[in-house]
């Protein structure tokens, strides 16, 4: 054999050995095939655990969690570090988790030891193990077909499923992929259990909506009820007002250490982030800059904080940002309102007149309302609550009673 032939033979053996020993890196792609929640749990052979945000680095896009409890198996470490970076196929895939991340928030972590899926409520992202860090590869918007809702509801559902029970969970509808990417797909409720190991929306369909508002049949005058976020200890007050102009009143729950701003979506309440909102003693709404949108003033331990309401027309949502400008600037001219958004005349206080039958729900049969029963001539009627002794109260403020948590009912007055 010539020297040239021997060289080609040796190179061929080396190439063959390299092909046998080389292993491809983990494939990074969306989970496009629909997964049921039971299927995700069955494939999470490493562990499923609840974790809480302890630190956030917004310059390097790092989130450090602490394990709260195991739901399946046992995750080996108490600290779970996620390097969000700027991965993914679109910037929003890392922007969603970083916009969500705040100390104290909770997520659910599913993994098989090497690959993981993290649910933060209304978004999922995938990360791979790499030493002490789990490195995000991309977002998983299509897993919103498996679950899309309140993280506490997911925790309870996973625990019940692990115990062999069947549950009902909110999910986004399969169909238009852009709607899933932008988290705007319609919400449906599907049955889920470990036995329902494949996705079949027709088989598992229960109803439409996330059921944050639960239908009640045993309470005359009301149709739905919803649990509210907790702001205890030292819960202080509730302020209610339509902050985004959609005709549905939104809520601001006030506690000494936490503020919960809840946007009313009709079938669900979405908690919005409030920058630097660590807690306060009181909250009032008023349109200080004349743009037609209510702004938020908080009385905090470090002094008053004013938040300007900026309505983002493209995203069809509202965000609030602190406004540090002086309040004595000239008022801008209020823009003309569209006829469909003209304000209704403000009724006289109920303390000065008798409530008309059905007045609480006359304009919107299914709007949220804080009501109280009033006995009048042996019949029960419902009137808007007017706190006593609050003559200088700004619109939208309802002082609280210091109770932990709360529930909200909606409906209309009895004839």
Describe the structure.
The chain has 415 residues and is mostly beta strands. The longest helix has 19 residues, at 3-21. The protein is globular and about 90 Å long. The strands form six sheets. Strands 1-2-3-7-6-5-4 form a seven-stranded mixed beta barrel. It has six helices and 24 strands. A hairpin with a 5-residue loop joins strand 2 and strand 3.
Major β-sheet strand ordering: 1-2-3-7-6-5-4
Which parts are unreliable, with pLDDT below 50 for 5 consecutive residues or more?
22-27, 312-319, 324-331, 347-415
Tally of helical runs: 6
User: Quick one: overall form?
Assistant: globular
**What can be said about the biggest beta sheet?**
7 strands, mixed, barrel
Overall mean confidence score, pLDDT: 75
Element pattern in H and E: HHEEEHEEEEHEHEHEEEEEEEEEEEEEEE
For the secondary structure, the number of strands is: 24
Give the structure's gist in a few sentences.
This protein is mainly beta and 415 residues long.
Provide keyphrases for this structure.
415 residues; mainly beta; seven-stranded mixed beta barrel; five-stranded antiparallel beta sheet; 6 helices; 35% strand; globular
Task: Please specify the SSE layout and strand pairing.
Elements lengths: L2 H19 L15 H7 L3 E11 L4 E12 L5 E5 L8 H9 L5 E6 L3 E5 L4 E7 L2 E7 L11 H12 L4 E6 L4 H5 L5 E6 L8 H4 E4 L5 E2 L6 E6 L7 E7 L8 E6 L3 E6 L4 E4 L9 E5 L8 E6 L2 E10 L4 E6 L48 E6 L2 E6 L12 E3 L7 E5 L4
Parallel strand pairs: 3-7
Antiparallel strand pairs: 1-2, 1-4, 2-3, 4-5, 5-6, 6-7, 8-9, 9-10, 11-12, 12-24, 13-14, 13-23, 14-15, 15-16, 17-18, 18-19, 19-20, 21-22
